[in-house]
Here is the input.
Amino acid sequence: MIRRLLVANRGEIARRIFATCRLIGIETVAVYSDADAEAPHVAEADYAVHLPGNAPTATYLRGDLILHAARKTGADAVHPGYGLLADSADFAAAVIDAGLTWIGAPPKAIALLTSRLESRALLADAGVPMLPAFGEPEHVPGFPVLVKADTGSGGRAMRIVRDPDTLSDAFAAVRREAAQLFGNGTALAEPYIERARHIEIPVIADAVGGVITFGERECSIQRRYQKLIEETPSPAVSPSLRAELCTAATAVVRASGFVGAGAVEFLLAPSGEFFFLEMNTALQVEHATSECVSGFDLVRLQLLVAEGAPLPMSSPPPVRGHAIEVRLCAEDPAYAWLPSTGRLHRFHVPDVTGSFKPLPQPGLRLDTGVGDGSVVGVYYDSMLAKLVAWAPTRHEAARMLAAALTRSHMHGVVTNRDLLVRVLRHPAFRSGNVDISFLDRHPEVFAPLLSSVDAVRVSCLAAALAGAAARRASSPVLATIPSGWRNVPSGAQITVYDGPAGPVEVGYRLERTGELAGWWVRAVDPEELDLAGLGAPPLTDDHPPVAVVDADPERVVLDVNGIRLAFGVHRVGDVSYVDSPEGSVALTELPRFPRPSELSDGSLTAPLPGAVARVMVVPGQRVRAGDLLLTVESMMVEHPVHAPSAGVVASVPVQPGIHVAAGTLLAVLNPD
Here is the structure.
């Protein structure tokens, strides 16, 4: 029997495992890096051990340090969660050799299944359908193909190749990335199927031959081959196809000797044929959807199997309704998915039914590794939380999930929330017409949720009114005088914000009674800001009629063309976060007298905070437009910095390994 369990992971998945441990009476041990010292998973554990450093290679990927932590705290079992060391056969073997219980698959099964090439022959003999694989560029018979690493997960080290001219370069790039990321530079190519779906079968197997499948999960909404939205059951899978998929998944489990919880992943072609992709040998991020529709706690089943007990059921559980999960990530989809870092000032999702365990009834489930005040750093994955909607039908689940996301407050970092809402409300998604290229085919989902001109303008007006109310409330004198009160008519009150599309000027004038006499919001050139209002447009302009119902520092109620709207305004420093039923917007108030830029022409700055990974040029070197100059690594992803034009590198004031903030000078290029 397991008495004390160490979770060799962090964030949301550590909290998820701790929740089940508390329910069944198992003590818990957390490990944490410097950056995670104040993280929620550390506070929730019974014991916690510090791993000095921040980079995953120095902390969460150090199996020796984790085993030392287990011995130090008296833990008798280790759960790897997902990612990090969960797919490491060497770590699994080390845990077992140390006399501890390993909550995962046998090391031999992990080694076999994490190698795409090694597993193919065995699984083909077991009757599992799969695509042909080619280990060298000269063996590829046709195009398009997907070149990918033999090992690894998370969508890393993959390239689509559509013509022979770029095939060798793709193989070389994938081999280089795979060696760096996974320690194995082997690559292969498979035929690339257009408009395919990503379908997976979650499974759990015990040590006495029991294998249970949990229906199927649709995971086709992806970016960079990484999942964003998952659901169960799939709208594309019929009962007969489900039976075939589950039979194939069971064959994979039995042929490989797999024990524990995992998922067998397939590619579903438009023709209805399906092909084995790989088996994930650990509990997956999207396991919560299967827990909702089945009613089973998959972490509890993992622990039972690890203790040697047989599974408590002999057949797959019936499916109850429909569950959809979204991954909320700190990234900006509109700007090449750049990660976003900083302090999360507010993180609130309304009407959550439960967290970290199966729900007793349909509703919303939120599993998150962050909270108000958490710092989102550059060292780890960008996922902040998983939000799951469980409802009787797919339509109800999508509607519930989109509404909850729209009304959520996420202040301090940029997230992919708006894109997720756009996808959930898209007609193609609602009809079930999805595949792995969905985001490429529907660029309209990248538009911000708050996109109409009038909605943006009114949100800006609400921010300005809330700011004036805050200044009035904190004033040591004349605090009760209405905002903008004058003995005689005077000029408008003006505030300038840096908004999502650049600087905007907000102007308004109040009557002596406090009523709004007129207002405007217009885009302005940063070099021509008119804070005195001397060149202000007419107060009526082309804006909808607005009346101020109430204006407090944190809440503004406006009557917009006969419709009353409430705006929540959360100000942190110079930034106002405005939330309304229309969506959200962050507005940074600009200073009245901005400082001149200290950057010279040709300066290239860091697009995001992170560590300089590679520097490809030296001063005096001539480069062409588009040449790679250097890379910045953030959230375990390398981001390239290319030459915007041809020229000569004047200086490179950074070196590999140093940490830089967003906007830090990386290089100076003298253009031709």
Observations:
- The radius of gyration is 27 Å.
- Residues 529-540 have pLDDT under 50 and may be disordered.
